[in-house]
Amino acid sequence: MDHEAHAHHDQHHDEHHGHDQHEHGHQHQQTGAASWQTAVQATLHCLTGCAIGEVLGMVIGTAFGWGNLPTTVLAIVLAFFFGYSLTLRGVLKAGLGLRAAFRVALAADTLSIAVMELIDNGVIVLWPDAMDAELADALFWVSLALSLVIAFVVTVPVNKWMIGRGKGHAVVHQYHH
User: Fold this and answer.
1) Which residues contact 96 (CB under 8 A, 6 or more apart)?
2) Band (175; pLDDT cuts 50, 70, 90)
3) Which residue pairs, CB below 8 angstroms and at least 24 apart, start in 92-101?
4) Cβ neighbours, 10 Å, residue 51
5) Averaged over 114-121, what is the pLDDT?
6) What number of other Cβ atoms are within 10 A of residue 135's Cβ?
7) Which of 38, 68, 128, 147 places its Cα 20 to 30 Å from the Cα of 172?
8) DSSP assignment of 93-146, as one string?
9) What's the pLDDT band for 137 if we cut at 50, 70, 90?
10) Are 20 and 89 in contact (CB under 8 A)?
């Protein structure tokens, strides 16, 4: 076998499919240690979808005078919806079909969103009077913002661990060009 031709083919394949480096120049590893920077970027992606859904759900539920449970359930459902939607948008744009893109989004985001929502909502529940705060109350916005920050901090190591094992957002990286 012509090893030089084979090496050239592998290099061309890596360049064409983006396996060598991400568009931002970051090295990606499918297994092994993931960088903290990669984990932070993945978690920020997750936080964006979660925050949109969480804030929207809390605002809708509070504005309509719903109780704590239906408001929290709506916020969680919307957090998953927007979290998955952001990933779907990216992988569909990369040319993946809807069914495959949905599987990638589920694999990439489920644990990350679940951890973020558990921590975020746990902080709100445990924060004195936060569950009863109205939209016009500073406590509503401060507790919501700080709960998202705490959720982010807790979720970064989870994403780092998952990416280091080729799971979570590592699944999405193969579709970034």
Assistant:
1) 104, 175
2) low
3) 94/175, 94/176, 94/177, 96/175
4) 20
5) 95
6) 10
7) 147
8) HTT--HHHHHHHHHHHHHHHHHHHHHHHHHHHHHSTTGGG--TTSHHHHHHHHH
9) very high
10) no
